[in-house]
């Protein structure tokens, strides 16, 4: 698994210093032109992999891991008061960076993620570092072990910068359901970053870290990626070990990756993928070397995606989808056609059934998965003079409203007499959805749709209307029910905020064919005119 | 998981202040299925009930004749795998609390179960041994309830697709209980995990959780309601114990809780098809207790019926109170508990191939029933058969002895009488003795071919049991070879007769009983080695001879 540090094989890289020079990223961002829908006017260079840039600059001695760490830490210090992406920032970042520098200076091998600054969603266990899933019930909890994904990142030299904010236990689509803080969208501080992995998405968008881990049960990586204008990669169920991921809905949960480029998300996925003997639902499928997909633009042919069959999911462009999102998706389809793809519309007849089925299955499993938070062994225990009272108070005070609602729904759905009508039926729907996707993917290499029906909305806007919030998951939940991989990458901007709001395109692939998604995604990204989705500068951050 | 890592985490003490809730319940901690909601209302003493013993036994027998008991048994068998079911923690009994735990069996956030293949192995073995059909595709489910000894808030179990189902077990009822052969149906065998234990403070102020047992693999065996008496139920239970010991899947120790039986019992007037109200009995720590508890319960229920108080028989869980020799109410059930079972999403389905099942079938040892039938066919009486087949190590020892060509009856006799008595006195098991099966066979042969006498045989037996060695070596060393030379015996006889003229005179004047005196003297002179039959024959000749 561990490969040694080597110069990137196929990419022509922009120097890392262009992003991390004397100027801060924010000022750089404000200097660069933002992509617009009529992108023909502005020409910005295609986004470049921060992982490869780090590798190259460390190897050439152009910079040190310590410098990289310092620059990110100072950026976090400056931007956190506005964004609140992190629930905890690691105290050992600099120490770990210095160790990498020491090894490099001694000519020792360092891992392929050496010096890469990585944010980790707070529901992914990090040894000795708080891991609370943004829940009161786990406040101050520090796990005695690393999640397998985290362990692999560390083994490859990656530096965990901190733990990112989220909706409590992954239940929510705005990160407002965190027990501790509300994260702002770097594109517009009055808007939500999406959720539940809002902290991980916003932190990458704001360049507080290079890449980050999230988790995706019904769209929790893809929707915030769309809202924050970053790349979000949800792998096939089983591709990444769930060991150390605090379970929300075990049959749907996957650990996913955020990056500012497709290449970064792909390389992070490569690092964390593969069979793990501690998770018997992890797959033994080979993990291909994704890196060879990330060719530089110079080597692209005129129609680099010639013959790739793309199905545009008809049901995702129907009513309830913002017109800006719809036209951005259609533009993206045109762009794919320009790259040589054959785009046709496909229909998934079971599409609209997915949302209710998802909420039944996810709530049912969560009602069971969250039973362990009883205050007996760890987490917050409320003293009581009677056993049921102890449970009642510990859980009553430990869980937030959204979590309680889902536990109640799930408990109901699994109760004797209701099981067949809800859980069993939802599982039947799940089978149907799987079949429909299979049929559509037998005809097409990938399927495309918007990542969310709208761009980021205002903080508080849907807080009291859970059904409206749930409806926002319509584009993503089906993919989890089918267990398929999907990538979301920014494809355009719509009106809103100081400089527009990003819109994400979702590409869905066949099981374990992340490679194809990364290839198409990378070429799409590198050739999109006016790409380089960098949020505007934050006030008082120069 | 590294254990050093884990020493840094200290599980919270599960502390309950100012309550006697758990203290009152202390006697019941060995049975873990105590449901939380019932603890509050539970009392340690039973409500006043008809005392069965007050009735004259004749009248009682008359009443009992009119009713039939219907008994089913749920048996939990703790498997003797080296690790727990879903993590690699050692599966040990009696370690210091919370020393055999890891994130998985503690139910820490993010930890996932990984099934040990050994559990499936044992499940298949037991399923086959109980003549069950196996599910080539079974799955795990979550059984959900809250209790402090259940770390995840659910038990990983099997619900609608158990690994084995539809079998039976054959049992011989001992002669002293009427004898006979019975076949009891097995409904199902399924795999599941055990829960932890609660340790209650002496003052009752707080309780602590020990998770060493959490995640230990269990097989639950559910019988058909085929038993009709305490004896039948106890025999069913001990056959389960024999089978798991023969198979090596469990030590079957009831005191340690490795084998736990919960009994479901109802009675109905003979001839009635409909079942009566079912009562569950727990806390049965021995098969004898099981038998007595059931018989008590049958009597209790029959008397209530007889007195027109059948409505007082309610669905409830009762505990066997060993001290009082009666069952007492533990909790009354308020309807069926809803465990909200659903398929365990963290574990893949359990798929068995036919080849795998066949290979396990081929590796099964001879089971108790087969052994009993074989011993019976060898001509042994049922009492001998039951004794020998009861303990797998005794049976194996016996098989080895007869494998060396020893006489079957003699081997059985030695094992059942002198060796059994020795083991009992010394509190040893057959595997502890120094006497090898080979030497017992030698001993039997030496007696049979009259190299040594039976009496001598007995003497050296105990030495061999305690110290080992060979029969031949001991015979030589102690010069124990039986004297079968008539001339030599005659010499000794003549010497004794000549030294006892008074006794001879008395004998010849009619006191023939004195033959015993002479025989004893000769035997003494021969140091016990004279062949007794030969001795008596020659002695008689000499005594009765004319001068």
Summarize the structure.
Chain A is built from 17 helices and 11 strands. Chain A has 542 residues and is α/β, with parallel strands linked by helices.
Please tell me about this protein's structure.
By secondary structure, chain A is of the alpha/beta class. Chain A has a single domain (25-36, 44-353, 425-527), classed as Amidase signature (AS) enzymes, CATH 3.90.1300.10. Chain A has helices at 17-20, 25-31, 50-60, 65-83, 93-105, 148-155, 198-205, 222-228, 262-272, 323-338, 354-369, 387-398, 401-414, 420-443, 466-471, 477-482, 514-527, and strands at 86-89, 117-121, 159-164, 211-216, 231-234, 254-259, 309-313, 342-346, 446-450, 486-494, 501-508. An 11-stranded mixed β-sheet of chain A has the order 1-3-2-4-6-5-10-11-9-7-8, with helices on both faces. In chain A, strand 7, helix 10 and strand 8 (342-346) form a beta-alpha-beta unit. In chain A, helix 4 runs antiparallel to helix 5 (93-105), helix 7 packs parallel to helix 8 and helix 11 (354-369) crosses helix 13 (401-414). Residues 1-42 of chain A have low confidence and may be disordered. Chain B is an alpha+beta fold and 547 residues long. Chain B has helices spanning 3-7, 36-39, 57-65, 103-106, 117-129, 230-247, 287-306, 354-363, 368-377, 382-390, 392-403, 408-426, 437-448, 454-467, 471-477, 486-499, 501-508, 515-525, 532-544, and strands at 67-78, 133-134, 137-138, 141-144, 154-157, 164-172, 181-193, 197-200, 207-210, 217-223, 259-269, 279-284, 316-321, 326-332, 342-343, 350-351. In chain B, a hairpin with a 4-residue loop joins strand 13 (316-321) and strand 14. In chain B, helix 6 runs antiparallel to helix 7 (287-306) and helix 16 packs across helix 18. Chains A and B meet through helix 11 and helix 12 of A and helix 2 of B.
What is this structure's SSE topology?
The complex is a heterodimer of chains A (542) and B (547).
Chain A: H1 17-20, H2 25-31, H3 50-60, H4 65-83, E1 86-89, H5 93-105, E2 117-121, H6 148-155, E3 159-164, H7 198-205, E4 211-216, H8 222-228, E5 231-234, E6 254-259, H9 262-272, E7 309-313, H10 323-338, E8 342-346, H11 354-369, H12 387-398, H13 401-414, H14 420-443, E9 446-450, H15 466-471, H16 477-482, E10 486-494, E11 501-508, H17 514-527
Parallel strand pairs in A: 2-3, 2-4, 7-8, 7-9
Antiparallel strand pairs in A: 1-3, 4-6, 5-6, 5-10, 9-11, 10-11
Chain B: H1 3-7, H2 36-39, H3 57-65, E1 67-78, H4 103-106, H5 117-129, E2 133-134, E3 137-138, E4 141-144, E5 154-157, E6 164-172, E7 181-193, E8 197-200, E9 207-210, E10 217-223, H6 230-247, E11 259-269, E12 279-284, H7 287-306, E13 316-321, E14 326-332, E15 342-343, E16 350-351, H8 354-363, H9 368-377, H10 382-390, H11 392-403, H12 408-426, H13 437-448, H14 454-467, H15 471-477, H16 486-499, H17 501-508, H18 515-525, H19 532-544
Parallel strand pairs in B: 12-13
Antiparallel strand pairs in B: 1-10, 1-11, 2-6, 3-16, 4-5, 4-15, 6-7, 7-10, 8-9, 11-12, 13-14
Helix pairs in contact in B: 6-7, 9-10, 11-12, 11-13, 13-14, 16-18, 16-19, 18-19
């Amino acid at each position: 698994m561990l490969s040694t540090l080597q110069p990137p094989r196929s990419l022509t890289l922009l120097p890392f210093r262009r992003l991390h020079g004397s100027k801060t990223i924010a000022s750089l961002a404000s200097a660069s032109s933002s992509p617009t829908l009529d992108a023909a006017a502005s020409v910005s260079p295609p986004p470049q992999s921060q992982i490869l840039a780090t590798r190259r600059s460390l190897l050439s001695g152009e910079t040190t891991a310590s410098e990289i760490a310092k620059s990110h830490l100072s950026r976090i210090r400056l931007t956190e008061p506005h964004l609140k992406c992190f629930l905890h920032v690691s105290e050992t970042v600099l120490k770990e960076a210095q160790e990498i520098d020491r090894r490099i200076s001694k000519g020792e091998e360092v891992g392929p993620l050496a010096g890469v600054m990585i944010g980790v969603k707070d529901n992914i266990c990090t040894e000795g570092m708080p891991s609370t899933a943004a829940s009161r019930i786990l406040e101050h909890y520090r796990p005695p072990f690393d999640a397998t994904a985290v362990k692999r990142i560390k083994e490859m030299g990656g530096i965990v910068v901190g733990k990112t904010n989220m909706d409590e236990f992954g239940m929510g689509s705005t990160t407002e359901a965190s027990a501790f803080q509300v994260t702002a969208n770097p594109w517009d501080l009055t808007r939500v970053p999406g959720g539940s992995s809002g902290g991980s998405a916003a932190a990458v968008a704001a360049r507080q870290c290079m890449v980050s881990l999230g988790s995706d049960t019904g769209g929790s990586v893809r929707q915030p990626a769309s809202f924050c204008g970053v790349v979000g990669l949800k792998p096939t169920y089983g591709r990444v070990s769930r060991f150390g991921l605090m379970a929300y809905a075990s049959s749907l949960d996957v650990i996913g990756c955020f990056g500012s480029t497709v290449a970064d998300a792909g390389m992070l996925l490569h690092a964390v993928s593969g069979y793990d003997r501690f998770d018997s639902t992890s797959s033994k499928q080979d993990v291909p070397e994704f890196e060879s997909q990330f060719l530089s633009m110079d080597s692209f042919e005129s129609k680099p995606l010639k013959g790739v069959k793309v199905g545009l999911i008809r049901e995702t462009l129907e009513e309830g989808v913002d017109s800006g999102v719809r036209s951005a998706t259609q533009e993206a389809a045109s762009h794919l056609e320009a790259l040589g793809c054959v785009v046709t519309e496909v229909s998934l007849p079971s599409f609209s059934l997915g949302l209710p089925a998802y909420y039944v299955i996810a709530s049912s499993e969560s009602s069971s998965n969250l039973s362990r938070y009883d205050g007996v062994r760890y987490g917050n225990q409320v003293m009581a003079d009677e056993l049921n009272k102890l449970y009642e108070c510990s859980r009553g005070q430990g869980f937030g409203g959204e979590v309680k609602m889902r536990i109640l729904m799930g408990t109901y759905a699994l109760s004797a007499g209701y099981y067949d009508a809800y859980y069993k039926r939802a599982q039947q729907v799940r089978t149907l959805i799987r079949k429909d996707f299979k049929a559509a993917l037998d005809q097409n290499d990938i399927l495309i749709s918007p990542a969310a029906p709208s761009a980021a909305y205002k903080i508080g806007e849907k807080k009291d209307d859970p059904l409206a919030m749930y409806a926002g998951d319509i584009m993503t939940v089906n993919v989890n029910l089918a267990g398929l991989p999907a990538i979301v990458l920014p494809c355009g901007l719509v009106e809103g905020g100081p400089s527009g709001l990003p819109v994400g395109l979702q590409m869905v692939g066949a099981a374990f064919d992340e490679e194809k998604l990364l290839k198409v995604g990378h070429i799409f990204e590198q050739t999109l005119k006016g790409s380089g989705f960098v949020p505007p500068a934050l006030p008082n951050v120069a | 998981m590294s254990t050093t890592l884990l020493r840094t985490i200290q599980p919270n003490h599960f502390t309950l202040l100012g309550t006697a809730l758990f203290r009152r319940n202390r006697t019941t901690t060995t049975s873990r299925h105590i449901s939380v909601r019932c603890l509050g209302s539970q009392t340690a003493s039973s409500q006043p009930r008809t005392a069965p013993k007050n009735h004259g036994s004749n009248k009682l027998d008359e009443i009992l004749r009119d009713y039939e008991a219907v008994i089913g048994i749920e048996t939990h068998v703790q498997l003797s795998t080296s690790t727990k079911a879903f993590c690699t923690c050692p599966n040990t009994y009696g370690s210091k609390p919370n020393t055999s735990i890891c994130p998985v069996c503690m139910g820490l956030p993010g930890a996932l179960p990984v099934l040990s293949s050994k559990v499936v192995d044992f499940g298949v073995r037991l399923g086959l041994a109980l003549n069950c059909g196996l599910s080539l595709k079974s799955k795990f489910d979550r059984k959900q309830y809250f209790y402090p000894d259940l770390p995840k808030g659910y038990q990983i179990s099997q619900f609608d697709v158990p690994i084995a189902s539809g079998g039976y077990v054959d049992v011989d009822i001992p002669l002293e209980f009427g004898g006979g052969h019975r076949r009891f149906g097995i409904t199902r065998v399924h795999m599941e995990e055990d829960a932890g234990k609660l340790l209650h403070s002496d003052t009752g102020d707080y309780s602590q959780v020990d998770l060493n047992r959490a995640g230990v693999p269990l097989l639950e065996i559910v019988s058909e309601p085929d038993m009709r008496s305490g004896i039948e139920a106890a025999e069913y239970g001990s056959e389960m114990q024999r089978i798991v010991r023969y198979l090596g899947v469990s030590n079957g120790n009831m005191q340690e809780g490795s084998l736990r039986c919960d009994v479901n019992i109802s009675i109905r007037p003979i001839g009635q098809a409909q079942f009566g109200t079912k009562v569950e009995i727990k806390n049965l720590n021995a098969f004898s207790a099981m038998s007595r508890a059931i018989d008590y319960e049958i009597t209790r229920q029959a008397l209530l019926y007889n007195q027109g108080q059948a409505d007082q028989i309610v669905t409830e869980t009762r505990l066997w109170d060993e001290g009082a020799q009666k069952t007492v109410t533990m909790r009354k059930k308020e309807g069926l508990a809803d465990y909200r079972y659903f398929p365990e999403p963290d574990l893949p389905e359990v798929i068995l191939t036919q080849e795998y099942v066949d290979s396990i079938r081929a590796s099964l040892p001879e089971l108790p029933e087969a052994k009993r039938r074989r011993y019976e066919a060898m001509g042994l009486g049922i009492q001998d058969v039951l004794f020998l087949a009861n303990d797998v190590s005794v049976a194996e020892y016996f098989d080895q002895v007869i494998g060396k060509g020893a006489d079957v009856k003699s081997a059985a006799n030695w094992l059942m009488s002198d060796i059994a008595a020795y083991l009992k006195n010394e509190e040893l098991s057959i595997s502890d003795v120094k006497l090898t099966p080979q030497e017992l066979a030698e001993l039997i042969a030496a007696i049979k071919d009259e190299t040594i006498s039976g009496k001598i045989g007995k003497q050296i037996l105990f030495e061999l049991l305690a110290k080992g060695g060979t029969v031949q070596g001991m015979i030589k060393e102690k010069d124990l070879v039986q004297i079968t030379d008539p001339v030599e015996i005659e010499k000794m006889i003549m010497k004794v007769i000549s030294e006892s003229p008074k006794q001879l005179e008395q004998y010849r004047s009619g006191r023939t009983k004195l033959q015993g005196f002479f025989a004893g003297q000769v035997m003494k002179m021969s140091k016990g080695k004279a062949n007794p039959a030969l001795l008596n024959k020659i002695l008689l000749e000499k005594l009765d001879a004319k001068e």
